[in-house]
């Protein structure tokens, strides 16, 4: 009789332990999903920033190339001065 009681107690304890472990596994899955979403958002922002930097670099290099090619034709004259009478 004692053996049967001990086995029943062990079975109950293992079921309780399994329930606790399943709860912890679910919590870890939620934490993992949350972390994955945050990392994906950071990767998206990094891609947007790097892409913007590349576009800005291409635009600035194009403007600089135009300035070096046609810079001698561009003159900026100072504002005319007026003399008081």
Write the layout of secondary structure elements.
Blueprint: H1 2-70
What's the short story on this structure?
This protein has 85 residues and is mainly α. The chain contains one helix and no strands.
Give an overview of the whole structure.
It contains 1 helix and no strands. It has a domain of 58 residues. The protein is rod-shaped, with a radius of gyration of 36 Å.
Task: Name the helicity range.
Answer: over 70%
Number of strands: 0
* Number of distinct helices: 1
Low-confidence stretches: none
Largest sheet: none
Distance between the termini: 125 Å
Rough outline: rod-shaped
Strand % is: under 5%
Radius of gyration: 36 Å
Features:
mainly alpha, about 0% strand
């Amino acid at each position: 009789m004692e053996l049967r009681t001990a086995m029943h107690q062990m079975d109950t304890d293992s079921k309780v332990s399994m329930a606790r472990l399943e709860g912890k596994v679910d919590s870890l899955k939620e934490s993992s999903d949350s972390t994955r979403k945050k990392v994906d958002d950071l990767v998206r922002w990094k891609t947007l920033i790097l892409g913007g930097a590349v576009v800005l670099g291409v635009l600035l290099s194009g403007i600089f190339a135009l300035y070096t090619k046609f810079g001698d034709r561009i003159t900026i004259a100072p504002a005319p001065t007026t003399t008081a009478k």
